[in-house]
Amino acid sequence: MYLPRHLRADDAETARLLSGLRAADLVTATTEGLFATFLPLIHAPAPDGFGRLLGHVARRNEHWRLSPVGESLVIVHGPDAYITPAWYETKTTTGRVVPTWNYVIAHLYGELVVHDDPTWLEAVVRALTDRHEATRPEPWSVDDAPRPYIEAQLRAIVGVELRISRMEVKAKLEQGEPAADIDGVIAGLRAEGEDASADAMSRARRR
Fold first, then answer.
1. Which distant-in-sequence residues (6+ apart) come within 8 Å of 167 by Cβ?
2. pTM of this structure
């Protein structure tokens, strides 16, 4: 990843991105070439190191069967938004502005481990389900479905785990721009309902 020092996300922004992870792109270099799968994942922190990413793919998805060449990569997308020059105060003074794109993104690298164990799989399915159902008025539980049905569904998937060995996290959020321009961009983003990007910019300017 192209990662200038001033655009490196701090620990707090990194933790926020990983704790809010919903789904991401798993990319593996294999003996058959590059293979990518978009899938729900959950981050399991560790007291030392970067922790693990846990998820599952369909058994019919050949991704888990292909022999990896080196590390796998998971790309985690945070908030992103188009930035129009119309929001910059500088537009009214010098006009020396152009469009850009703000974003937060993480590239997580590590060993891809496959799990074909029903107990491991069920624990991950429950963790993912509980995570995404937690805010619903009447959360659905794995236990709401008939047990034989759940067992059949578990046989149709395979677990994947990325043991994270290194990570690169970038937060391109107008760092270094004039305060008036940042104010204009934040206001413009909020006016268009891009609150997540506006919040990320507000946090970045306080660092």
1. 14, 50, 106, 107, 108, 109
2. 0.92
